[in-house]
UniProtKB/TrEMBL annotation:
It holds the Pfam family MipA. The keyword Signal applies. It comes from the Bacteria. Belongs to the MipA/OmpV family. Residues 1-21 form the signal peptide. The keyword Signal applies. It is found in: Cell outer membrane. Keywords: Cell outer membrane, Membrane, Signal. It comes from uncultured Sphingopyxis sp. One of its GO terms (cellular component) is cell outer membrane. This is MltA-interacting MipA family protein.
Amino acid sequence: MTARNRLPALLLITLAAPAQAQDGEKRTRIILGPQLSPSWPGADKFSVGPYIDVSRTRDSAFEYEAPDESFGSPLVHAGDFAFGPAFGFIGKRKASDIGADLPKVGFTVEAGGFAQVSLTPSLRIRAEGRKGLSGHKGWTGEISADYIARQGDDRLFSVGPRVTLGDARYTRAYFGVTPAAAVASGLPAYDPGGGVQSVGVTAGYHRMLGRNWGIAVYGRYDRLVGDAAGSPITRQLGSRSQPSGGIALSYTFGGR
């Protein structure tokens, strides 16, 4: 998961241990480490952020979570189907950051929901949508599929495609150039629409190194397409390539 989506889990780390003490049957796993991701959509610069996840289970194995999915736990399970809230964050983009006199896009808090279905134990499909409550103030979302190969919690590998979408308001915030901004920045005016923003793939791996400790790694590559790829901001100041990745230690405690 990207840095923008993992930040809320910091709040749960302090809650997990006290809750565990009240219920010895549950197990808790905390994943914590650094990750590198684009500083904003379309950036050719990268930011270091936290790669964090907190999971709890009563079952013999933790429920699968993709390493790049937005933060949020299922509220409803109905067989192999589940849905719940999804939250994301994107750091601000200033003119000095991008290297041209373009309007600032403020720090964005995104809130929305997801739905997912496990077609088989080895194949999960997920869709999510989030609304920017600040910053870009548009809608963005993602459709993903993951092939999962695991041996309980001892070893887990996943890989699958990603399609990222954004509405016109979202796309214009990061990739549009108004006539006024064109005069100020020297870039040509550009009025993009919404649709598919990028296509990519994510792979993740987690392995236990003992009873409690483990290691988690992931890599993701996205390629901007459509109006996002054709933007003069992308072509002159950013990059169509959007790689990210992280490495972390995991610690599991509780249970019997």
